Amino acid sequence: MVAPYLCAVVNALAALALATILAPGVSLVPTAAQATYAADHLPAWRLGWGLWIAAALSLVAFFGWWASRIAWPPVARAAVVIAVAGVLADMIAEGRLIAWSPGQRFDIDGALRLSGIGANGSYSLAGAILTWRTRGLPRWLAQWSWAVWVLGIGLAVAVAAGSDSGARLLTAGLFALLVPWLVVFGRRLA
Prior knowledge:
Helix content is 83%, strand content 0%. It has one domain (2-189). The N and C termini lie close together (6 Å). The radius of gyration is 16 Å and the shape is elongated. The protein is mostly helical.
């Protein structure tokens, strides 16, 4: 039962890092001021993106735990493979942000698009598949689950459309629902 709690804690820390440490340098339309901010706060910048990689890894571990709780049917295995593809997209994107250093082109928009579309889209699809396959959920928990995945898909669409304000709003809503959902859903499946 460690996976849901660990995933909740790591994702909460990553969301907090985004809202505080990373936010001044994050935009789908990068500016020189954002690059300066990242350069001036490089250790914290790298730590923040490292937390996002840890959050992605914890989420795929949670999906694996979840799939094991529903006896690993083929569709659940496919969902975990989709989530792994999301982790790979996140690791590439966030790895680029961690490796960035002053003097290089500040290609945050490309990394955010890969993470926002590829990773979040994959996680949301994987979560939707697992939710669909999980039997016996109370109606309120099923609705909460679907709300999480719909927000995740909405986030991917907002990033694809280049909407900073939409992406920020949907990210806030997603993590406000996801973090407590992980704990409640995990307790239910345990």
